[in-house]
Structures are given as structure tokens and as C-alpha cells.
Specification:
Largest interface: A-B, 20 and 20 residues
Number of helices of chain A: 8
Largest sheet of chain B: 8 strands, parallel, barrel
Radius of gyration of chain A: 22 Å
Distance between the termini of chain A: 68 Å
Number of strands of chain A: 14
Structural class of chain B: alpha/beta
Number of strands of chain B: 8
CATH architecture of the largest domain in chain B: Alpha-Beta Barrel
Strand content of chain B: 5-15%
Strand content of chain A: 15-25%
Helix content of chain B: 25-40%
Number of helices of chain B: 10
Oligomer: heterodimer
CATH topology of the largest domain in chain A: D-Maltodextrin-Binding Protein, domain 2
Structural class of chain A: alpha/beta
CATH architecture of the largest domain in chain A: 3-Layer(aba) Sandwich
Order of helices and strands of chain B: HEHEHHEHEHEHEHEHEH
Strand order of the largest sheet of chain A: 10-9-11-8-12
CATH topology of the largest domain in chain B: TIM Barrel
CATH class of the largest domain in chain B: Alpha Beta
Low-confidence stretches of chain A: 12-22
Low-confidence stretches of chain B: 1-7
CATH superfamily of the largest domain in chain B: Glycosidases
Distance between the termini of chain B: 79 Å
Mean pLDDT of chain B: 92
Largest sheet of chain A: 5 strands, mixed
Chain lengths: ~260, ~375
């Protein structure tokens, strides 16, 4: 009797798990059969997704989506007019298969959604001129420029409480913080990596550079429903390949700069 | 002999069960996560350079006492002597005549302890006061005229209980928006009838009570719109319906959107100083002596919301608004920014109205306002 119950329990467990896997494979199977990958985004965020002057959908994420579609053998259908607040709802309502819209991984949402491997690191970075500041600890006794109220400002204030002699130079914008670094009013500027790369690309003569890796973790990833394991696996494999063969690096260079 | 042995066995069996029960209680009690013991601080006084600085807290759905205390402590430490808080009627009177005051008592006690004055927004409709669902499907914001007296009794009961501790109440919220009026066409005359039902009972319960009408939403919706009605027109119609004797002050919402606080008001523009147009209407109708409490206001700094400003602008505009009201609005005792903290992240642009994170980390705007007020 006990053995029967154990066997039944085991069978139930296997069938349940197998059923779940089956459902997610059905989604991936549907996508493959239809040959279309539906991509949701809010095309209002330069340079990741936006509508250019010629009325064309452009940007890092747009090109990334097309590349993913090519590698997965799928045609990409864009839904570019979703509101940022509604991106996750669009997944839940199955209006789109994936969201590729400069979305930062949020583990608080992991109960319902799954994130791919990261395709871009958007965290806060130190931008410096010359030598002297290679990491956070080097900021003691120095001046750090940061946009007032921005995410970096919260971090900078925390550092200022811990690093002796660190002075904050609050600016009205991220560009103003960079200007402070370029003119010597500050020893470094703190901002998100995308803004920093674009600013340096726009003014290669400014003699500023990124000092090391991002100091915060803000990874952009492709988002899908948690049960879409087959799709997620395929996307991850494609992104891994794109990282290995340098495609992701080329994409970042094209849209954001070195 | 056998009887005694039987008695002994039974006795020891009962004692054994008791011992086992006690043992289990002890074990599970040890395993249970201990709740923080929350005691009131020594009575606090808010230090501030601007007595009209306020925030709208959102403790309605915050059940843990330590979070209620910490929120109000941080409000006071920011230099804000005011908070606007929402006390839903369904939460407090879930059945006719039966009251659940525990949560409200906590909020009021901790606010008072921290030296923070509470403006209480009262609204929503409990199920027992809604029309029978067979007749009509209604929402929480649907208050049928047949329930006006019940709502008035609730307001009076609230006023009596907290007399001397909460002396400002807002009657309903944004009645000029359809979805705040039960998804019905807005009806200024009906709202005035509600005020008329509430006012005498509430005043009898607490003669010192300041009854705030309106909490009108700034909107440009024209007459006949399904969404609502322009707040200026709505206020005009309130007066035409005879509102004046039934409120002591007006509550107004003054969101700045993408304009600085000093931007000039105009009937076709939504900005912070639109409140001055409401003021003009009040003066025209002989209510110059009545104050206007700004019970919701603010700017948003979400990087991807089309109506947002930059983080630096949000800080400057917020402080600028507090300062503008102090310098130019002698009839305004309070400007309350929406919203101090949310119990849980919304994962949308609304999170960018807050001053403090869900984890109680003060944002730069909190620190800058604290520096402005001289708060401690």
C-alpha cells in the first residue's frame, strides 16, 4: 500500500513537471511553426529604441531583435508603441513573446517573468580624465560630479558618508557632470554607462574615459514569461553566440561608442 | 484497585496531553519570527523653516506597526509638520455600526508622537452601503445618495473619536473625475448634497473640525466628457448648488507636470499655480476667508514617462513650490507632495513620485527637502 502511494506520488510529480515543460515547449513550438517572434518595446528611448527622422524604427534593441530573429530563423514583428509601464502586462496578456526595451533585470518579478542573459551593462560608471581615479576607493579627498537627484546621486551620497574627504559637485544634468570632469572642476563624474558612452562618442576630443567596470548592477535583458523555457533557452544560446563572436560588442560600438 | 489504576491512567493521559501541547507551543513559539516591539518615541516636535511643508503618506495598506512609525518619524525628520493620509470607510466600518479602529489608531498615535499633524481623507464605500449588486454593479468609489447619511455618520464617528488629534478631514476625493465618482457622470450638485449631509453631523461631533471639500483633480475635461469635468467649472457649479455653508476649506491637487512652480496659471493650463484660479472662484463667491489646502502635488522624475522632469528639476521644483506657497499664498496652510513612500513598488512611473524607497532609503529629494527645511 505504501509502495503504491509512493509510486503514484512519483508519477504525479513527473507528469506535473512534464506537463509544465510541455506547455512551455508548446509556446516555443507555436512560435517556430508560425515563424514569427513578436517583440514588444516602447520606442522612445534613444539610442536603444526610437523612431528616427525618416520615421524608421531604429536603435540598439531594434537591431538586436532583428539579429536574434535571424539566428532563431524567425521573422521579427515589432510592437513599438507599448507604454513602458505596460511592457510586462503585454507579456502577461500574451500580446508579445518577448520584451526587448532596455529593461533592467528585476528579480522581484521572477515569480512570473524570466530574463535572458544580459546583453548590455547599464550600471553607474566613473568617468575620469587622466590618471588617479581607477576605483571608488580612490575618490577619498577628491571631487565627484553627479547629476542632482539621479540614481548615481543616491550612490554618491552613500560614498560621501564613508570616504573621507569626498566632495560632491551636484550638477543639473549628466552632461554638466561630464563637463565638470573635463574642465577639472571635478576629479570624476558618475553616471549611467549608456549616457557616458554616448557623451564620449559625441565628443572624442574631451579626453575623458570610463574608469573600470560599472559600480552598480543594472543589466539589460530580454524578458519573457517564466514558462517560456524553450524560447528563453534559444534566446540565451543566441546571445551567448553573439557575445563570443563579438557581435554584441560591435552593436554597442555602433550605437553607443567605444 | 482497578478503578484507582484506571483513574491514574486517565489522569496521566490527560497530563501527558497537556504537557505535549505546552511543549509544542514552546517549540513553535521559538520557531516563529519575532515581531519587532514597537513603542512610541519620546514626544517629538518637527523642526522646520516652512510650516506648510507636507507629504501624502500611503499607510492605508501598511500593516506593520514599525513601518508606520518609521514612515512618520522620517516625515517629521524631513521637516514636514503635515501629512495627508487616507482612511477608507470600508476598512474602518466593514459592517454597519461595527468599527475596526486598530490601524487608524496606530497611524494617529504615531503621527501625534512624531509631532506631525494629520489631514484625514475619508472615502470609498463599504459593501453593505452599496446598492444591491443585482440592481447595479458598482465600484468602491460609488456612493449612492441613499448612503449619504451612513457616510455622514461615519465621518461624525471618526471626528468624535479623534477630536483633538485629527482636526482636518477631506470629504471624498476628486469627485470631478468619473472614475472617482463611481464611474458615473460627475455631478457637482450631488457632491454638494453629500457635503450637506456630512457637515452638521461632523461639526456636532467636533466643532473644531475643519471640513475640506473638493480635493478636485486638475483637469481640462469639458462639460459632457465621460472622463470628468474641468476643476474650475466643477467648483463654479458647486457654488451654484449652494456649497458654501457646507465646507470650511477647499482641498486642491496641484501637480506641476513639466512646468516649474512659478509658471503662470491659465484656465487652459495644468500647473502648480492653477490653485490660484480656484482661489479666485472662491473669492468671487465670498469665501475669501476660507483657506485652500494643497493635499496632493508634485513632480515625477521617471526617465521614461512623457510627463516627467529630470531628477534635478524635480528637486528644484518641489522646493520651489513649498517656497512659492510660503511667499505668495497666505491663504494656504499646507502643500502636501504625493507621495512619501509606497508600501510596495509599482514598477512603473508612479514609483518616481516617492521621497523614500520601499526599503526606507531616503532619496536625494528627501535629503534636499530636509536641508531646505532644516529638519532633523
Amino acid at each position: 500500500m505504501t509502495r503504491c502511494i509512493a509510486v503514484l506520488g512519483w508519477l504525479t510529480l513527473v507528469l506535473t513537471l512534464g506537463g509544465c515543460a510541455g506547455e512551455s515547449d508548446l509556446n516555443w513550438q507555436r512560435i517556430q511553426e508560425q515563424g514569427v517572434l513578436r517583440v514588444g518595446m516602447e520606442a522612445n528611448w534613444v539610442p536603444f529604441e526610437y523612431v528616427d527622422g525618416a520615421g524608421q524604427l531604429s536603435g540598439f534593441d531594434v537591431e538586436l531583435a532583428r539579429m536574434l530573429g535571424e539566428r532563431l530563423g524567425l521573422q521579427v514583428q515589432f510592437y513599438p508603441n507599448l507604454s513602458f509601464d505596460g511592457l510586462y502586462d503585454a507579456l502577461t496578456a500574451e500580446r508579445v513573446d518577448v520584451v526587448i526595451s532596455a529593461v533592467v533585470v528585476d528579480m522581484n518579478r521572477s515569480a512570473d517573468f524570466a530574463y535572458s542573459v544580459s546583453y548590455f551593462e547599464a550600471g553607474q560608471v566613473l568617468v575620469v580624465k587622466g590618471a588617479g581615479v581607477d576605483e571608488v576607493q580612490d575618490l577619498g579627498g577628491r571631487v565627484l560630479a553627479v547629476e542632482l537627484g539621479a540614481a548615481g546621486d543616491t550612490l554618491a551620497r552613500r560614498w560621501a558618508r564613508r570616504l573621507e574627504g569626498l566632495t560632491l559637485n551636484h550638477t543639473e544634468s549628466a552632461q554638466a557632470a561630464l563637463d565638470a570632469g573635463a574642465t577639472g572642476q571635478a576629479d570624476a563624474a558618475l553616471m549611467d554607462r549608456a549616457s557616458a558612452l554616448m557623451a564620449l562618442k559625441a565628443d572624442p576630443e574631451c579626453d575623458l574615459r570610463l574608469s573600470g567596470e560599472p559600480v552598480t548592477d543594472e543589466r539589460y535583458a530580454v524578458v519573457t514569461l517564466k514558462e517560456n523555457r524553450g524560447l528563453l533557452g534559444a534566446v540565451n544560446d543566441a546571445l551567448d553566440d553573439m557575445r563570443r563572436d563579438g557581435t554584441l560588442a560591435q552593436l554597442a560600438l555602433k550605437w553607443l561608442g567605444p | 484497585m482497578n478503578a484507582w489504576r484506571c483513574h491514574d491512567r486517565v489522569g496521566s493521559h490527560v497530563w501527558g496531553r497537556w504537557l505535549l501541547t505546552l511543549a509544542l507551543i514552546y517549540v513553535f513559539g521559538r520557531l516563529a519570527v519575532p515581531r519587532p516591539l514597537v513603542v512610541l518615541d519620546p514626544p517629538q516636535t518637527v523642526v522646520t523653516r516652512n510650516a506648510l511643508v507636507g507629504v501624502h503618506t500611503r499607510l492605508t495598506d501598511e500593516v506593520e506597526a514599525w513601518k508606520i512609525q518609521r514612515t512618520l518619524r522620517m516625515v517629521g525628520q524631513m521637516g514636514a509638520p503635515w501629512t495627508v493620509e487616507y482612511f477608507p470607510w470600508p476598512y474602518i466600518e466593514p459592517a454597519r455600526g461595527q468599527y475596526a479602529w486598530g490601524h487608524t489608531d496606530q497611524v494617529v498615535a504615531h503621527a501625534r508622537n512624531q509631532g506631525v499633524s494629520v489631514v484625514a481623507r475619508l472615502g470609498w464605500t463599504p459593501e453593505w452601503a452599496q446598492p444591491e449588486t443585482a440592481e447595479i454593479e458598482t465600484t468602491l468609489t460609488y456612493l449612492d445618495p441613499s448612503a449619504y447619511d451612513a457616510f455622514a455618520r461615519f465621518v461624525a464617528t471618526f471626528a468624535a473619536r479623534y477630536r483633538g488629534r485629527v482636526d482636518h478631514v477631506i470629504i471624498w476625493n476628486e469627485p470631478n473625475l468619473s472614475f472617482e465618482w463611481g464611474y458615473r457622470p460627475v455631478d457637482p450638485a450631488a457632491y454638494v448634497a453629500l457635503l450637506q449631509a456630512v457637515y452638521p453631523l461632523a461639526k456636532a461631533a467636533n466643532p473644531d473640525l475643519v471640513i475640506l471639500a473638493g480635493a478636485l483633480a486638475p483637469t481640462l475635461e469639458s462639460p459632457g466628457s465621460l472622463a470628468g469635468l474641468n476643476d474650475l467649472l466643477y467648483l463654479q457649479e458647486m457654488y451654484q448648488a449652494g456649497a458654501s455653508p457646507f465646507f470650511d476649506a477647499l482641498a486642491a491637487h496641484a501637480y506641476g507636470l513639466q512646468s516649474p512652480p512659478e509658471a503662470d496659471p491659465a484656465p487652459d493650463v495644468l500647473n502648480f499655480r492653477r490653485v490660484e484660479l480656484l482661489r479666485q472662484i472662491m473669492v468671487t463667491h465670498g469665501d475669501a476667508e476660507k483657506p485652500i489646502y494643497v493635499t496632493e502635488a508634485g513632480w515625477n522624475d521617471h526617465p521614461r514617462w512623457t510627463m516627467a522632469v529630470s531628477p534635478a528639476q524635480r528637486i528644484r521644483y518641489t522646493i520651489g513650490a513649498y517656497e512659492w506657497a510660503k511667499e505668495h499664498w497666505p491663504w494656504c496652510p499646507l502643500v502636501a507632495m504625493w507621495t512619501f513612500r509606497l508600501p510596495a513598488a509599482r514598477h512603473n512611473y508612479r514609483d518616481n513620485y516617492t521621497f523614500v524607497t520601499v526599503e526606507f532609503d531616503p532619496k536625494p529629494i528627501y535629503l534636499e527637502v530636509q536641508a531646505y527645511t532644516g529638519g532633523q
